[in-house]
Amino acid sequence: MFTAPASLSLALVLALAGAGCSGGTSGSGGAAKTGGFTVAVAEPDHLTPGRSTVGWDQLRVLFAPLVAVDTKGAISYVQAKSVTSTDARHWTIELRSGWKFHNGEAVTAQSYADAWNATAYAPNGWSGNGQLAGIEGYAALNPAKGKPKAKTLSGVKVVGATTLEVTLTSPDSQFPLQLTPSQLGFYPLPKAAFTDPKGYDKKPIGNGPFKMTTAWKADEGTTVKAYAAYRGTRPKSSAITFKSYADLNTAYTDVQAGNVDLAYVPVSKYGQAKADFGDRLYTYDAPALEFMGLPLQDKKFKDIRLRKALSMAIDRSAVNKAIYGGLYTPATSLTPSSEVGAETDICDACAFDPAAAKKLLKEAGGWSGELTITYPGGLGLDELYKAVANQLRQNLDIGSVKAVPTADWAEFSEKAFAGKITGLNHSHWGALYPSMQATLRGIFTKAGGCQVCSHYSDGDVDKLLQQADTASDTASAAKLYNDAQKRVLQDFPVIPLFYGSYIYASTDKISGVTVGPADIELSRISVVG
């Protein structure tokens, strides 16, 4: 059995048994302060964890995860007491006893099993379904054709009130990382979620530091209050009001006016955010990659020298400064540094070198005709791709390079999945857990959620990723994941641009704003004025 203390960086842990925790049996931290603060959020689609794709901020305070990770990548336990395995395939999750949902119902192993089964059952159509795909029995609940022959995951067994045994389809050293806060499909559910699913979806009962006292009101929001019986680290404020916004640009203006205390900064405001908010601007490198995909099936893009020339002709630092106010980080690898153990500064073709780019393009036979960059309209990406198009045209002496927006995201997605984009295209991948596994498998394997972004897979890469998943120690696994990304870079199938960022702005009413690695930590915020 592999074990690790709570201070261990969470890269590739096989067993995280027993050392320190962020949730004790009697609670920890200071008492919640009087008063609350207001947070701007987008209107949620659902507030049942396994169903939600938009209600992250609310659910991350209403529910407690099994495992948490801090800004330095150190892991700690919350609802879990330990997560252990001897072979990375068969896992035992021991829960802390005495924890309760906000209605007084005990949080048990069955609470998790019921929630995971509901999320994984295809006919339910819950958005978190794919998060459970690595558990044995998932295929039976999600057949390619026909109705499922089972309703529960064979790989999830309740063997005691606080003990859950999980069997994966194959060894996966990253399983503990998948239990961190942003993987909403791994939260537990009380019985009320099944007896009154419609009502529960508007007023969820969680096991976290805050309790919902009134149901969510469409296009308005709700207020949650600190849960007095919470057995984890107590929140720093007594209440949070979530205010619904259809346009985050409006929310940004409302923070400036003091009408809301905290809001996510939309990309369209990056250039002015530092000047507007100064030290009340909070940024963190997210486990995300902004990049451009290439139609590798088109013979025009077959030559790796052409692909590298396009990348080396882009001055990422200049674009970042001019458009994003320096808030982004130019990518120098395929995996952001926020993914624990990830190496950066390994992408030679990510460095701006117009002379070398012209030389490579000439060696590749040059470029004839128009070059297009397709991106989704309406998301504030216009200036970015206009700048990239100008740089490619000027630095490579290509006669015509055009940035072409679609009407919206729906049209862009439809074209991408239909293979109708003929030039470069906007791509983004955001990992829900801070592991290189999530990014490399998501973008560069056939089963990945963003394989349509890269059009790339390779047998050597698959083998390295499989070896990393089954590695017996953290150092070996990290090396293999890095070897996999280096192998991908040998083929250079995509053009990395920037690592993603989480960026928030606040009023001076609050303090202790902490961002990353799993997004904003609302329970750590204090009211000071």
Automatic annotation (TrEMBL):
GO CC annotation: ATP-binding cassette (ABC) transporter complex; periplasmic space
Residue intervals of the Solute-binding protein family domain: 80-447
Signal peptide boundaries: 1-19
KW Signal (keyword) present: yes
Coiled coil: none
Domain of life according to the entry: Bacteria
Gene Ontology biological process terms in this record: peptide transport
Keywords: Signal
Statement: the UniProt record of this protein carries the keyword Hydrolase: no
Gene3D superfamilies: Dipeptide-binding Protein, Domain 1, Dipeptide-binding Protein, Domain 3, Periplasmic binding protein-like II
Gene Ontology MF annotations: peptide transmembrane transporter activity
Protein name (Swiss-Prot/TrEMBL): Peptide ABC transporter DppA
Organism name: Streptomyces aurantiacus
